[in-house]
């Protein structure tokens, strides 16, 4: 009887209908991850257009308007289409398993959250093919007015698609919170939850608090553009700087939305391959919560140069510097976890260690930028580009790649090709540093961001960056090959997969059954 | 999470829906607040 019921539980549509109608957290997680990978190559191709144009001074490949479309679209796609969906994919796959639940709390809403995204991004990307109507949005991903109020029809497409992405993110965040608060196995108290689930709980609250603010900002842009309002139009009594305040009230917590789950992934991988429990679990949880709180009171450090009262500049400078404290706690805890550990360097660990080291470089350049008088010099230069790419690429993206290698054997039931994984890591690590490290020097020497042409003295560093970009892009093709090869077959993975791994996901077979825990596991 | 088909599970599901409705209302309030507080 019980067996028959289990069997009925496993039945689900096959083929394309399975993916369209699925309410299963693993299927939806897989779709998010595949979607994110596709977007990674689209956004990456745009980055390569940018880097190819910047190979030498002068205009060679694209006209400046198209170049601006590429910088804008690259950013929108990478932020909303790659990093966020990748983390949501991990969340869908792992949170129900890590807390000992059967699925997400609201599975049908989960399906809807995902299926909004392909439509939102199709609409956004379609604007690249509307060059006669002004093309894609080109005023930067921050959509600052007056440029965004004056832009062509592409800006309207972007506004609608950002609303859709916002709905998708808010629904996803609600689902994560409802799942974690209501679906935990008996005995799985909050302070026993794995760090990845913890970071996602905090991230979900951030999403819930700030995505509606972005939606509000772009709604006002829309009404300014088409319905006669003047929220941001100085001629009608509005203020363009108001948009910057609203945008960055969303934008800074957004930075942590993009990095907190990365912290969670590093906190899963490092203890596994150091064969030691995570050092300072409690302090890690409080550090994540502190970072989330501080993220709400630092937004104006993105706009020091607009002209603020000195007291405001000082407040935002000191508040920003304060974030280094909980972030430092996390970095020291990861290092203390490694201390006297029995360390082995499989691909996930390589990515996690590179994450700790290279993310910290991005953190330090962030501290430099937080200093008001220094920021006046760095603002809108390549130094800023170097800073946030260090945080986002060897930061967020490396953690995603590390997390993918870490759980691929669990997801597919097969071990991935370790040799190719290591090739992927080393080519990525060399490529990413060659790509972004010279940008610090370009910025300090005064090269402005978002320009298709530059002065002659910047040529060499730009050429290094372009070589690094193509190397990094090539390395990601190896990743695709590894993933496909692993999904299709290979050495069978055991349930435990990694010797030092702890947590409920390793108690399930690899791959886990279609419904993870239909009977709640016992938590020690 | 309680066993499937039990009263506890139905209760957990109701709790999840209630959590979602409260959070959805908060998100909507933040959206409207960010527009109308001008």
Labels describing this entry:
heterodimer; A: 524 residues; mainly alpha; disordered N terminus; B: 38 residues; 0% strand
Quick recap:
The complex is a heterodimer of chains A (524) and B (38). Chain A is mostly helical and 524 residues long.
Topology readout:
The complex is a heterodimer of chains A (524) and B (38).
Chain A: H1 2-10, H2 16-21, H3 25-53, H4 64-98, H5 107-126, H6 147-150, H7 153-182, H8 195-226, H9 240-274, H10 281-294, H11 310-322, H12 324-338, H13 347-370, H14 372-378, H15 382-412, H16 418-444, H17 459-488
Helix pairs in contact in A: 3-4, 3-5, 3-17, 4-7, 4-9, 4-15, 5-7, 7-8, 8-9, 8-10, 9-12, 9-13, 9-15, 10-12, 13-15, 13-16, 15-16, 16-17
Chain B: H1 7-36
What does this structure look like?
The complex is a heterodimer of chains A (524) and B (38). Chain A is an all-alpha fold and 524 residues long. Chain A has helices at 2-10, 16-21, 25-53, 64-98, 107-126, 147-150, 153-182, 195-226, 240-274, 281-294, 310-322, 324-338, 347-370, 372-378, 382-412, 418-444, 459-488. In chain A, helix 16 runs antiparallel to helix 17. Chain B contains one helix and no strands. The mean pLDDT of chain B is 84. The longest helix of chain B has 30 residues, at 7-36. Chain B has one helix at residues 7-36. With 38 residues, chain B is mainly alpha-helical. The interface between A and B is medium-sized, with 35 and 23 residues.
